[in-house]
Amino acid sequence: MPRDEPGLVCGLPAVDCGQAMSHCNRPVFRQAQGRATQARVGHIVVRARLSARRSPTVDFLVDTGATHSIVPPALARKVGAPTLPQRFEVSLADGRRRRLKACSMSVSVGGRTGPTIALLLPGSDPLLGVETLEALGLKVNPERRRLEPSRAQTALLVGVRRPRGR
Q1: Number of domains the chain is built from
Q2: Residue 142: pLDDT band by 50, 70, 90 thresholds?
Q3: Helices (H) and strands (E) in the chain, counts
Q4: pTM (2 decimals)?
Q5: How far is residue 98's CA from residue 109's CA, in Å, rounded to a whole number?
Q6: Distance CA 142, CA 84 (A)
Q7: Nearest Cα to 11, choosing from 107, 101, 25?
């Protein structure tokens, strides 16, 4: 994908990045792939294990300006992630609106695992959005250019009942 293609930033859809389109170039991201965690030109790339029917390890660009995580449909198929039946309308940074499908999968980053819903965007690189970071209890440390815990490990409380008579 050319970096100056309308609506794209770093080879990712403009919905995923609020910065000007000239802030980086895609080869920098590509060079960073293959490393567990790497930052280049203000970007953070993390290695994550996705799980549904299969569990590949994939490099994700972390974007605190993106609400949702995004994966290309081919990756969702590779993972075997179930696709949700409806499409969701999203706004791109350039003002365009798109209706995208989504899938559900598990994501593991930095020793933390949790569920996530990822939007399916053809031609995109994997992107880790804020909702997934929040679910995992992770935050970006911009000074150290890495992900760090924002709270204790996540816990799922199931079947908590109130005492009778209260």
Answers
A1: 1
A2: confident
A3: 3, 13
A4: 0.69
A5: 28
A6: 34
A7: 25
